[in-house]
What does this fold into?
Amino acid sequence: MTESATKIAPSPRARVQAMMEYHPPLGCRDALRLDFNENTLACSPKVREALGRISAGSLTRYPEREPVEALIAARLGVAPAQLALTNGVDEAIHVLFEAFLDAGDELLLPVPTYTMYEVYASATDARVVSVLADESLQFPSERLLAGITPRTKIIAIANPNSPSGSAATRAQLLEIAARAPHAVMLVDEAYFHFHGETVLDLIGEIPNLIVARTFSKAYGLAGLRLGLLAGPVELMRWVRRVLSPYSVNSLALACLPPALEDAAYVDWYVGEVLAARTEFEAALDQAKVRRWPSRANFVLIEIGARHKEFTRLMSAAGVLVRDRSSDPGCDGRVRITIGTREQMRQAAAALNETLARLETNGGAQ
Ligand SMILES: Cc1ncc(COP(=O)(O)O)c(C=O)c1O
It folds into this structure.
């Protein structure tokens, strides 16, 4: 490129220039992927059948989300106008922040938490106000309440939270919503199925509550990119203004009804994960690895200074895990997704082998 071409290159907004690109780690596909909190097995066979029925001709048409939205709204007990399907919860977060965060506004976040809140907030002119959890990594309810100001515009709470696995109680959430009536309270229930507690029933009743759900976790549809936002009609209509009408593609829309119908599959998968979590936690305790109590399909563990080497050795042993050391308050901590019992026995064997190797080769980094 010539010098003059560089000079006249269009420049993005200052906020975008200050942003980092976010590249999720790529893993070798043969390994056991315990680094994304996905379903580690498969989606329902009913979804696979639905995929098989999709004709090439149907792909010529733009997707129609509204009939599917009506169906899922009925299933979740909300009105269609209270619900919007999105291209994963990531898009839900993006459009919500786009719709509500202005210059001078504050996004209040308990941290550590899901990375994308901060990524999408950094593209707006709002300020991120982070409230650090203490060593227990429990939901910092009191500190969060103290962090509410007249400028707080959104409070984003992953419940259960990632990477800690901890959860806020319904009473804590209700108090926060009541103390910040001028702010949207987003409760991101991506891991709802493993936790079993929800505030979705309060949609409409609490005027500033919006709930997000994903089909990427228990349903095993992360590749289809399906999420949703549910909230009062008065808030959802602003969200809809920024939401692309076609961001949920027709394959995803075709797969959603059979995925929802096959509740037995999701129940089975969740039961399997919870049994595996109990077994894996016992294996961690036996190996004397510190862990944080989890309400989700992953567990955060303490590895210490050699977290990088641990993650590398686990990967060499065929198990991908996620080093969370760069998250606030998480130095030396690694998150491991819980899969099936069989997979977690493999993970526990790799973990024991890796810990033994770390011990025998002393302090070598
Ligand atoms: C708390 C939380 N919310 C949302 C997401 C992303 O969901 P989706 O795949 O629907 O974009 C994740 C993914 O890890 C998550 O941990």
Observations:
- The chain has a mean pLDDT of 95.
- The chain is about 40% helix and 15% strand.
